[in-house]
Amino acid sequence: MIIAIRSVLFNLAFYISLIIQMILFLPLTLLLPRKKAWIVPKFWARSNLFLQKYIAGTDFVVEGAENLPEGAYICAPKHQSFWDVYAFLSYIPDPVYILKRDLMRIPLFGWYLKKMKMIPVDRGTGIKALHSISGGTQEAIADGRQIMIYPEGTRRAPGAPPAYKYGIVHLYMNLGLPVVPIAHNAGLYWPRRKFMRYPGTVRCRILPPIEPGLDKETFLQRLIEATETACDEFLVQASQDKNPPPMPATAKARLAELKAQQSNTTETVAETTPRA
């Protein structure tokens, strides 16, 4: 009951803060040069993290910030929640998001996206969408910006089988930039399509960059392996916390798989170890 009340209070505070900040800071955002205008969305991101910590009881930790390169690169976060849309803004200096074109049409919110020169894409247009992404990223790269793309395209529940799309491969092969994977377990604490916000600590890890020059299959395999291995680690850690968050069916299934894999590995080691 207490968690439900705190969730309601956080959601109210989150959306009220969003509306007030969008209205209050719009003139400042429009007047400032784009790079300096980042002060507004980054303040919004920090205020969200503050509200979530002190109202919902959800803190976070980020490891591996030293893995972020200088200048332009592709940032590939796991997408489990709305939380991962803004949580990394303090770590990425000048990000450009690849996002649905419909978001650009939202009053106020869409104006901010246009000011920050985000890259809109029409979903479901296939090759045309890939070409529009490539064209939109060239200007961003020339300006030293960081390309933000969610490899799976849409939010996935914690523990769900990976479903990485071709878009990330297309960017990697065509832009010649390193790709920085980011793993986390935010979906356990801010579940998709639910208003509940659970207390605990979101674990995040910025992984070492995957350098350009690999073939498609090798790159995708490394991206998936690095990201999903870290996500599995965080899932296990969350399940072992003193007060773990509720585990969705996908997380329970994945935890069972990981436990079975560990048991099989232990048995194999025991069978191959020579007896004294």
UniProtKB/TrEMBL annotation:
Record flagged with keyword Transmembrane = yes
The residue ranges of the Phospholipid/glycerol acyltransferase domain are 73-187
Instruction: Tell me if Transferase is a UniProt keyword of this record.
Output: yes
Give UniProt keywords alphabetically: Acyltransferase, Membrane, Transferase, Transmembrane, Transmembrane helix
Q: Which organism is it from?
A: Pseudochrobactrum asaccharolyticum
Give the matching InterPro entries: Plipid/glycerol_acylTrfase
A GO biological process of this protein is:
phosphatidic acid biosynthetic process
Q: Which GO terms describe its molecular function?
A: 1-acylglycerol-3-phosphate O-acyltransferase activity
User: What are the TM regions of this chain, as residue ranges?
Assistant: 12-32
Concerning CDD domains, the annotation shows:
LPLAT_AGPAT-like
Q: Please spell out the taxonomic lineage of the organism that makes this protein.
A: Bacteria, Pseudomonadati, Pseudomonadota, Alphaproteobacteria, Hyphomicrobiales
| Pathway the protein acts in | Lipid metabolism
Task: Please report the name of this protein according to its UniProt entry.
Answer: 1-acyl-sn-glycerol-3-phosphate acyltransferase
